[in-house]
Design brief:
heterodimer, A: 238 residues, alpha+beta, 5 helices, B: 249 residues, 5-stranded antiparallel β-sheet, 6 helices, 10 strands, proteasome (chain B), Proteasome subunit alpha type (chain B), Proteasome_alpha (chain B), Proteasome_asu_N (chain B)
Chain lengths: 238, 249
């Protein structure tokens, strides 16, 4: 595998949850090039595909931008043909077909996408599209390098039939936790809430997040004195 | 109704001076000579019925099907040249499968009708192809509800409440117009279609015929399937009784 380490990656953390009336998608906003943080505030990892279907992107930035443009182009034509916007399932299927058919060509590392949206037939739906083209319909999904740290949290915290505000708070908290524990995630948390009424976008700047790196590990402990002897393993024996 | 387009009817790529393409009209005549095919849209689904003329007593009943399933939710009944019809059905099946592969969902019936109509039309554009000599009645049940389309050899496709093609189409259309389709269930529709087909069958000109019916409705779980045998027998009996009543008058 030929990782283009000097190309921009938007690994980060992406989250998508369903609630009673629709879906909430969330992502951090850090873009990395190799070991460096290229940008911590501008990138928007949640991209529009049709009126009410958005995709969260995690992986090589160039490839994912292309996928979004390509799928959006096909869906624009399909909308004109059918006279109504495409369903979430059809959109997710197009995304995963691209992933599946180009698995060998895309040799740039792990790519994970979450397609989420609302359509009038099935309501709010989340589809996780993994590297290689697997598609899974799930009540909630996470992906990106920071996602492994919040697997347990989201499993515990997600409840069926949440309200919109609760769902959005959950997504923000999940992404903040991921930012705190993952080097490739950071910056602001962007959310997109999609339901029958429409689409609402929010951006939570880094200082407004519930948990930041420095605050997370600070715990209140009793003051104790301990003597510690430190021995360096490579110190030469006298 | 019929006219001879002397000189302008040799090729499908030739227009006549009054703007007609005679080859397509001749193709439609092939449809007019075949057994009657009827489709109706009831309030809960579609019923298709075919008057299958039996050319030989040696043919096995139930063979030579004229109604074909295209997808789980839709089927088409073919009037006209049966071999041409097979080609169209194969294409329709392939379109439905390809749509599902790309978009992950069952093809909407309207889209299927559009694609089949485009294909039929395609074969009227080139001098090295001849038009299909068959008319199609396509019935399906998707998210928008039950829908009925008719596709003519010219490639025109319209959506209908009730459609009839073939020999007895004029009489059949008159009968269909008398029915209150929006209040009828498919169960009742099956009986009515059978009655109409028996009524328009010309005993003098054609000998035996076999009645073939299919439906796609709430009762069949929105799947296209043959009408259940017991209901078919019931329909045939009702149709024969109605015929005797008419003869008695």
């Amino acid at each position: 595998m030929d990782l283009h380490l000097n190309a921009p990656y938007c690994m980060g953390t992406i989250v998508g949850v369903t609630y009673d009336d629709g879906v909430v998608l969330g992502a951090d906003s850090r873009m990395t090039i190799g070991m460096l943080v290229a940008n911590d505030s501008v990138s928007d990892k949640i991209t529009q595909l049709t009126d009410k279907v958005y995709i969260c992107r995690s992986g090589p930035a160039a490839v994912l931008e292309f996928v979004s443009d390509y799928v959006r182009n096909i869906l624009d034509q399909q909308t004109i043909q059918f006279g109504q916007p495409a369903t979430v399932k059809a959109t997710a299927n197009l995304v995963r077909l691209f992933s599946y058919k180009n698995t060998n060509a895309i040799q740039m590392g792990q790519m994970g996408m979450i397609v989420g949206g609302w359509d009038k037939y099935e309501g709010g739906q989340i589809f996780a599209v993994a590297q290689g083209g697997t598609i899974l319909k799930l009540p909630y999904a996470i992906d990106g390098s920071g996602s492994s740290g919040i697997e347990g949290f989201l499993d515990r915290a997600w409840k069926e039939g949440m309200s919109k505000d609760k769902a959005e708070k959950l997504v923000v908290k999940a992404v903040s936790l991921a930012i705190a524990s993952d080097a490739a995630s950071g910056g602001a948390v962007r959310t997109v809430t999609i339901n029958s009424d429409g689409v609402r976008k929010n951006c939570y700047p880094p200082d407004s997040l519930p948990l930041c790196d420095d605050k997370r590990r600070r715990t209140k402990t009793k003051k104790t004195t301990t003597t510690r002897t430190e021995r360096r393993i490579d110190a030469p024996k006298p | 109704m019929s006219s001879i387009g002397t000189g302008y009817d040799l090729s499908v790529t030739t227009f006549s001076p009054d703007g007609r393409v005679f080859q397509i009209e001749y193709a439609a005549k092939a449809v007019d000579n075949s057994g009657t095919v009827i489709g109706i849209k009831c309030k809960d689904g579609i019923v298709l019925g075919v008057e299958k003329l039996i050319s030989s007593k040696m043919m096995l009943p139930g063979s030579n099907r004229r109604i074909h399933a295209v997808h789980r939710h839709s089927g088409m009944a073919v009037a006209g040249l049966a071999a041409d019809g097979r080609q169209i059905v194969a294409r329709a099946k392939s379109e439905a499968a390809s749509y599902e592969r790309v978009y992950g969902e069952a093809i909407p019936v309207k889209e299927l009708a559009d694609r089949v109509a485009s294909y039929v039309h395609l074969c009227t554009l080139y001098w090295w192809l001849r038009p299909f000599g068959c008319g199609i009645i396509l019935g399906g049940y998707d998210r928008e509800g039950p829908q009925l389309y008719m596709i003519e050899p010219s490639g025109i496709s319209y959506r209908y409440f009730g459609a009839a093609i073939g020999k007895g189409r004029q009489a059949a259309k008159t009968e269909i117009e008398k029915l209150k389709l929006s209040e009828m269930t498919c169960r009742e529709g099956v009986i009515e279609v059978a009655k109409i087909i028996y009524a328009v069958h010309d005993e003098a000109k054609d000998k035996a015929f076999e009645l073939e019916m299919s439906w796609v409705c709430d009762e069949s779980n929105c799947q296209h399937q043959k009408v259940p045998d017991d209901l078919l027998e019931q329909a045939k009996a009702a149709a024969k009784a109605a015929l005797e009543e008419m003869d008695a008058d």
